Amino acid sequence: MYNFFIILFSLIAVILAFLDLANKINIDIPPYNYIDNAILIIFTVDYFTRLIISQNKKRFFKENIFDLIAIIPFSSFFRVTRLFRALKLIKLTRLFKLIRLLAFLEKLKKNTRNFLYTNGFIYLIYANLITITAGSFSIYFFEKGVTVKSIGDAFWWSFVTTTTVGYGDISPKTIPDRITAGILMIMGIGLISLLTGTISIYFINKINNNKTLPDYNELPEEAQKEIEDFIQYIKSKYINN
């Protein structure tokens, strides 16, 4: 649950930072500033909690530079710079926004890396993206004006076919595109199947990594006696001889 929410908040932060940098939204006004500040508080608590419980704080600091950048309240700095427009410090705001976006992207990448590389899932994603793109251009080239009107329609059909949803609003008429549709369906089935397996393996690995051996003194007396007998047997057979 912790990993899921950190990835989710990182993704939201990346989207907000990108839209703000592209001047699509203003992250300093409601409701975006409420969301941004809430995520900032969560990331700050997360960072300092992990810093406190870490055994090697110097190493933690070096390995989490981007996490630290992500919790710097640049928006407060922006408000200060408005008082010094004569010094043209306001031009630095876009640079700081870009740095923050890169920090969020790195945080998102770090938290999703282990999952994406589990079971080679990332490579199937790449293969599907290539197939979806190729399928989109294929139906757009062969059936433009017949079944699809734009490249957007082509990508929509390719994506829907790959996910095996198949709304039926667009269906290929030519032989090449029907073959392409078959390939997309097969790739989509593989993606969904591997996604299910990857989720299972990912959490199984995390559980196994968190497991610790029980303390010897906490074992039942019968188990302790069996262990001692086994050790004595190994000593007598291999060490003493």
Automatic annotation (TrEMBL):
Gene3D superfamilies: 1.10.287.70, Voltage-gated potassium channels. Chain C (1.20.120.350). The keyword Secreted does not apply. Residues 2-203 form the Ion transport domain. It is found in: Membrane. It comes from the Bacteria. Signal peptide: none annotated. The keyword Transmembrane helix applies. Keywords: Ion channel, Ion transport, Membrane, Potassium, Potassium channel, Potassium transport, Transmembrane, Transmembrane helix, Transport, Voltage-gated channel. The chain crosses the membrane at residues 34-53, 120-142, 182-204. It is a multi-pass membrane protein. InterPro entries: Ion_trans_dom, VG_K_chnl, Volt_channel_dom_sf. This is Ion transporter. It comes from Clostridium aromativorans.
